[in-house]
Write a structure and sequence with these properties.
By secondary structure, this protein is an alpha+beta fold. It folds into three domains: 64 residues, Ubiquitin-like (UB roll), CATH 3.10.20; 87 residues, no CATH class; 164 residues, no CATH class. It is 52% helix and 12% strand. It is built from 15 helices and eight strands. The strands form three sheets. Strands 3-4-5 form a three-stranded antiparallel beta sheet. A hairpin with a 2-residue loop joins strand 6 and strand 7. Helix 2 crosses helix 5 and helix 5 crosses helix 6. The longest helix has 19 residues. The N and C termini lie far apart (69 Å).
Length: 331
Amino acid sequence: MKNRKVFCEDCRRDVDFKVKDIRMEGTIKGEKYNYNGKVAHCSDCNSEIYVDEVNDFNLKALYDEYRKKNNIISLEEISEICSKYGIGKRPLSLLLGWGEQTFSRYCDGDIPSKQYSDVLKKIYDDPFYYNEMLEKNKNNLKSESAYKKSKITVEQLIGGEISEKSKINRVIEYLLEQCEDITPLALQKSLYYVQGFYYAFYKKFLFTEDCQAWVHGPVYPDVYRRYRDYRFDPIENNVKIDSSTFTSSEIAILDSVAQNLSCYSGKVLERFTHSETPWLFARADLTEDELSDRIIPKEEIGEYFESVKDKYNMINPNDIEAYARTMFEHI
């Protein structure tokens, strides 16, 4: 930038210039935003001068601040989506049911609405979600080759992420396939019970993610964000799972939780968790409706469900039925 000359209106000729950082303020949609910008000055007379690159930098910095404050996906993340999933800009727009040029405009710097941003953010963050969208909306694509190319790419990406950290995603897929009409609330509590009872029987946790003590019981925040648009409706499932990716011990817990706990509504399961010590201890000094992001320590979940296993003399995961039946009788 500094190796070229620009015109200075005061000096009336092309001059060298210097750039310095400055705190700036801009307005978007009637709201003011402060951001870190730049200003260029003539090296001869020190007057402020216009430089294309500096102006472009400041516009991007202003828009980045707007995106940050309003939780809008960043331009960098938008730009990475197509290469990440092996799909073109136009096919991606068609896949999502948008206008053919919509995603291209976002790549060029247009700011998406919050609704469209949330969709793109979920796609960027979660290959499993994108895979679901690809299967659900593949008929929107005008080219079979576009579908096949993206399918190969996302399957390779998912395969590379099959690890302990992504185990929760496979557990979710298993529960969605086993349980008809499961709502986001019921799914959250089912994950919590899978984690607790798996530890009780096998002395280790099935996945690494922590849950938080929200008003309506234990919640895995990333899972909440993924399915929150369903609200009180059952979650749609278009993915067929490969049960061979689970051990027999894992399937035993998953099946028992699905049959004995996930059969209840989310509100019933919420009441179950409200009487259990892990959630109660995490919210000990909070009011009934007070929002909280406190983590329920996995160790406390493990200890509680170990005590449940001992109390009910559980020999194998099928014995979870007795606990579920007793909890239902006492709510």
